[in-house]
Amino acid sequence: MYRFDLIVRGGTIATASDVFRADIGIRNGRIAQIGEALTGDCEVIDASGKYVLPGGIDSHVHVSQPSGEGIVMADDFESGTLSALFGGNTTIMPFCLQEKGRPMREALTAYHKLAEGNCYTDVSFHLIVSDPTDSLLGQELPALAADGYSSFKVFMTYEDLRLSDAEILKTLDVARSTGATVMVHCENEDAIRFLIARHEAAGDVAPRAHASTRPVAVEREATHRALSLAEIVDVPIVIVHVSNGEAMEEIARARARGLKVVGETCPQYLVLTAEDLDGMDWEGAKFVCSPPPRDKAAQAECWRGIETGVFDLFSSDHCPFRYDDERGKRNPKGLTSFRHIPNGIPGVETRLPILFSEGVMKGRIDLPRFVSLAATAHARTYGLYPEKGTIAIGSDADLAIWDPAEKRTIRHADLHDGADYSPYEGLEVTGWPTTVILGGRVMVRDNTLVGAKGDGTYRSARTRGAAPL
Question: What is the pLDDT of residue 2?
Answer without folding.
Answer: 76
